[in-house]
Amino acid sequence: MKIVTIVGARPQFIKAVLVSRELYKKHEEVLVHTGQHYDQELSKIFFDELDIPHPDYNLEVGSDTHATQTGKMMMSIEKVLFEEKPDLVLVYGDTNSTLAGALAAVKIHIPVAHVEAGPRMFDKAIPEEVNRVLTDHVCSLLFAPTETAVANLKREGIEEGVYLTGDVMLDSFLHFSKVAECNSSILRELGLSKGGYLLATVHRARNTETKENLSSLVEAFLSIDEKVVFPVHPRTLKYLRQYGLYDKLRNAPNMRLIEPVGYLDSIILTTNARKVLTDSGGLQKEAYFSRVPCITLDEMTGWVETVEDGWNTLVGSNREAIIEAVKHFEPKGKQRDVFGDGKAAERIVETIGRGL
Which of 133, 191, 254, 309 is 20 to 30 A from 62 (CA-CA)? Predict the structure, then answer.
């Protein structure tokens, strides 16, 4: 079977790597990188350190408005699909690349499989939510990471072709944690010790593009009386400078601003942090996998299981709530195996092999 896999953002590289390795054993895979994340140096780091084969196609779409970016992707993906004539298109997660790949394929009657189908934040003002919902509704195979995701799909009338596989991010986390322990030197380079810092990341549009929210987050970070390691996303850097907030952070004695890091360094920073503060869905899960308390800088999450188990708390961009959570939030419950057993990639490829 020939399968075209479409990725475009760094979290998708992480989700795809072990699935691609399983596909390689039995099928022909054509890897398409849309170039949605257009920082080529950082993309190269992810491909190299995760040992992902370099893409058969790099569409180099780059940044633009949602409509323009998605439209460019669809046009380029369609050309690839006409040339390759795959039996199946495989997409991941909730990015513009996900939706563009799904729409381009289904319009020309190529079946689509969606890895990480079903999570919901129940807010269509979030672009990623729209991408995921629309993708789910055009797919033939839906690989749900959790029972909650399966239930969400059922509520929307989607029951055929749904498979509970577990979360491929857990597969990657378990596999690459061992690699990271041997290969990452980030703690030594930054002079950090286990439990001796907080890890913070911010990148969601609602937190970066709204001056009030970003200012509140900055004031919260500056009010924290312990070291905060802050890998600064390119979008966040742009708005920090635009709103005159960057120098405040850069010059604060408790803040350590660093460039975005690769996956191996991210694992080590997460597993050794005292707490994680983030608006990233992926990092919420990785904190959960690491058994590190997570403070989510948002008012909702697609990964409600982490909150239900007591390892994640939602504080939005509220300065006082963030400071209170840093001081006092501690896990309240025992973790369940809600994200599977680390064998999601095997189940996904086995299901694909059984045919549509």
Answer: 133
